[in-house]
Amino acid sequence: MFASNRPPAPHGASLLSLRALCLAAASGIGLAVLYLRWPYEYHFPKGDAWRIRFLTAESKLLSFIARWGSRLRIGSEIAILRRLYYLESCVLCVRTPKADIFTEVLDADGVRIIVYRRLAWVTAEDEPDGPRKPCIIYLHGGGWVYTCAEERDAHHRHLLTHLEAVVAAVDYRKAPEHPYPAGFHDCLTATKFIHTHAASLGVDPSRISICGDSAGGNLSAAVALKLRDEGQKFLKNQVLIYPSVQFLSSRLTSHLQVYPLLTREDGVWCGLQYMGEDVALCEALLDGDHIAEELYRHPGFLALQKYDSIAHSESKSLASPTALAKLRDRIKDPYLCPLMARTMKALPRALILLCDYDILRDDGLAYADRLRADGVTVTTVSVPGYHGCFRNFQVTRCGAMMMDHLVKYLKEHL
């Protein structure tokens, strides 16, 4: 990841780069400390305010280090951040390996899946009439760009332990190297693979659920839609944790708030990376210049009006008309933007977990509205947390609350 084709730099230049990086890190730490002292006006659970302030400052520090590392030609900013996020997860997510948990890496037509099972279940596979277990297919978040399946290892083990269910974690391809539909196709392929090979994995094919956070919530909703459209209605539940479900509007009430960690600019940048579009279109998306008049009557657009803070109006964008036309066509794809599906009928029962202080809160509420309007059973829960707290469920109380709600729901419906 950090390999370079450049000839080795002279010792003096190398030393200069090291000093510059140290200076950048020191500056970043200084900025992070200042951010730690910034007052919060959010009502987080008792004891969480300082933890979230620390995590936010740490996130800004990592971004600062990656930006300077890129300028010093150590690697790309995305590559450095990926490595830093992985190291961060090793510190924040306490892994508790147990002798009775068996992990296995499977190849599903080129897609890597990590399967978690009890060792006793594996040794009992030779019993044809043995009990089959429910299965949770987990799709991790990370803006379609960052993190990997291993970074949710603690989550997978927690779900297995508390639900007595097989957990299958999908390591799908990431943007910008592999833009849409690569990641979506990987998740769809992996889900079908688990269903097809349910017997060999000790899984009950009628008790398979899909679950994902953030970008993983987008992918989970998209896979559920695609399977329904193909007539393969084997998913029992879809669990969407603060999902990103649309690229239509960036001006919902929650988008315009200043919340920890994720900003609407971050969300739009990640979306453009996932779509493989030029990040120069960021301003056009933020202003709503990509919304064509034909979409005004679309059920997805209408669902957002309840939460839209700024009425949409035509404006003259500086972006390329060709690029905007392409973008307008792409955001109608329901497997890219699940909210844009023409109907939500016949989708599996849903749990939508949201956070009060998250820019994607209203996106999740709008998606829940559309599901309910089309007769899908939906449970919506919002906790006093921030975007990303589920990832840190072992560190923050709000993250633990989300995990508790998830476990409780799946115990009843899995």
The count of β-strands is 8
Q: Specify the overall morphology.
A: globular
Report the sheet-strand fraction. Answer: 15-25%
First CA to last CA: what distance?
39 Å
Which segments are poorly predicted (pLDDT under 50) over 5 or more consecutive residues? 1-13
User: Radius of gyration from the CA trace?
Assistant: 22 Å
Structural class by helix and strand composition: alpha/beta
Tally of separate helices: 13
Helix fraction, binned, reads: 40-55%
Reported for the largest beta sheet, the result is: 8 strands, mixed
Average per-residue pLDDT, rounded, comes to 89
User: What letter string, H or E per element, gives the SSE order?
Assistant: HHHEEHEHEHEHEHHHHEHEH
Layout of helices and strands, plus pairs?
Layout: H1 11-36, H2 48-71, H3 77-92, E1 101-108, E2 111-118, H4 119-123, E3 133-139, H5 153-163, E4 166-171, H6 182-196, E5 203-213, H7 215-229, E6 235-241, H8 264-275, H9 282-287, H10 299-304, H11 321-330, E7 349-357, H12 361-373, E8 378-386, H13 397-413
Parallel strand pairs: 3-4, 3-5, 5-6, 6-7, 7-8
Antiparallel strand pairs: 1-2, 2-4
Helix pairs in contact: 1-2, 2-3, 6-7
